[in-house]
Here is the input.
Amino acid sequence: MTINLDNLNEEQRQKLLNFNNLQQSFEFITSQRLQIESTLRETELAIEELEKINPDDTVYKAIGGIFVKSEKNKLLDEKKSLKVTLEMRLKTLKQKEERVKTQIETMRKSIQADFQK
Here is the structure.
């Protein structure tokens, strides 16, 4: 269904613009959530691998485009700290995503009611 914005009053036009903005926000938040989930999985895998190796084994961490020799325990602590941070960020993004999803649904119902009148 195509809507001609010229045929709408200012309130209806504003609702549609707000609805569009909410949808864009939802897509952005979802994209961020997926990226955080991916990074979290990589971090969990790195922690598992670091816990398997001997403390005397040589480990490296990537910094930019180079690898730098590091201590296993120090690197493990960094990864565990990163995991906690990512989990908190993921929880916040999921809450935002649900809030925006609810707003979109409420606005969608409102817009539908306007057009049925």
